[in-house]
């Protein structure tokens, strides 16, 4: 590069840098936030204090969401939001992912009665802020990811009339917070890192409206029968609990007063350490949707089950099953079975024999070597079969006998498209979508079948 050229380049660079600095100043000094019809957006702007919002164009508009997440806020001072007081709006303020350890008592002065949601996850609060006591319409309070040590009873009593969604991290709790019972309107409860192994059966007393419970990362050896008092519970999610394995399949402590929780229809169970399928059916006899993944599960004991007619969708992904558990056949109403990423090598004649209503099956990412000819004999309702990323080298004959089949996925297999596939001659593929390519030629499998086999060129 000549001297002249490099000087010209430097000039361009200076202009470029100058415009960056100018842009930067515009962004952070005059107004770090952007505005839309319902949000003041100030996420990730490196803020160390609550900025003055420019409401010039929004004097009569409800800016419902105030997004201050992912900044460098450490405290929220008195009167931080008085600017927003004139309009009768309800506000949801997002403070997640800052380093807030202090919220002054009058931080929300002027809008306290209009606060609907406070997202305070992943900050540095040690207690519930007194400032929320006067938020008589507070609906959602999320404070998980803070080093909270206890739940102040007088604050809990005040917010208990309105809060319906609540999350908290209990890592530093010395004892169970019985103050939870003040939240009698609660419908959604998320509890992170419960440090206890057992709970008193009355731990959830009073929470009769809770429909959704999330237990993330507890020291529980069994899921305590305290959940049995949650009479409205319809969805339960249990993740990252590393000691459940000790109880084998008896993960749920039997209910002491009621026999079961008949309203639970959805159960999700992931990243736990659990070799065994848990005893969910006795405690949730009406469960319809089961989703499990990444528990390291290997065993599902048939003798534990009776025929069951409620489960319609069953996901069992990223587990360690090396064959299809025969107890699956007790789920007589099953319509959707998802078994991706297990260790299944063979599919045998009777593996799915009881599943007369099965419509969708997914066996992606299993090291399947073969599927017997009668494997889907009783699954006459099947419309979608997914067998991608397996070790299959041929199209299993059994799929040609599925009368309702609409979609067959065979992607990323080593399917050898030779006249060996001629056994598929009588298979009418014209109304079936087949995804996947021949191993050697990359020709689409359905093309091969049409041009070679059906056309009689083999
Ligand atoms: C506030 O916004 C108005 C209109 O969008 C703009 O004209 C004005 O310069 C802004 N004020 C400041 C201090 O940024
Ligand atoms: C916040 O306001 C209250 C009442 O006006 C006052 O007692 C308190 O000292 C103030 N806090 C700070 C940090 O200024
Ligand atoms: C604010 O709005 C609520 C409901 O939208 C209403 O009940 C209340 O009277 C309003 N308050 C004022 C001062 O306008
Ligand atoms: C958060 O604030 C505390 C003081 O309250 C400080 O010790 C800590 O280093 C801060 N953490 C980060 C990630 O800035
Ligand atoms: C618990 O899990 C580990 C593997 O994570 C396994 O080796 C062990 O045998 C399991 N214990 C029981 C009681 O199932
Ligand atoms: C499901 O199975 C459990 C135990 O195996 C049984 O108690 C329950 O009644 C069954 N539910 C239905 C709807 O069949
Ligand atoms: C299978 O599906 C049919 C039609 O939806 C339904 O009538 C029948 O009860 C189902 N069978 C079972 C075992 O759930
Ligand atoms: C499988 O289907 C056959 C005939 O359709 C039926 O007689 C048999 O009972 C079915 N098996 C099971 C376990 O449902
Ligand atoms: C194949 O199926 C299509 C659509 O279902 C039908 O129109 C066609 O006649 C069938 N072909 C043969 C040879 O049966």
Automatic annotation (TrEMBL):
Keyword Membrane recorded: no
Keyword Signal: yes
Any one GO cellular component localisation term in the record: plasma membrane
Cleaved signal peptide residues: 1-23
SUPFAM superfamilies (alphabetical): L domain-like (SSF52058)
UniProt entry keywords in alphabetical sequence: Leucine-rich repeat, Repeat, Signal
Pfam families: LRR_5, LRR_8
InterPro entries cross-referenced by the UniProt entry: Leu-rich_rpt, Leu-rich_rpt_typical-subtyp, LRR_5, LRR_dom_sf, LRR_TM_domain-containing
Name recorded for this polypeptide: Uncharacterized protein
Organism, scientific name: Dreissena polymorpha
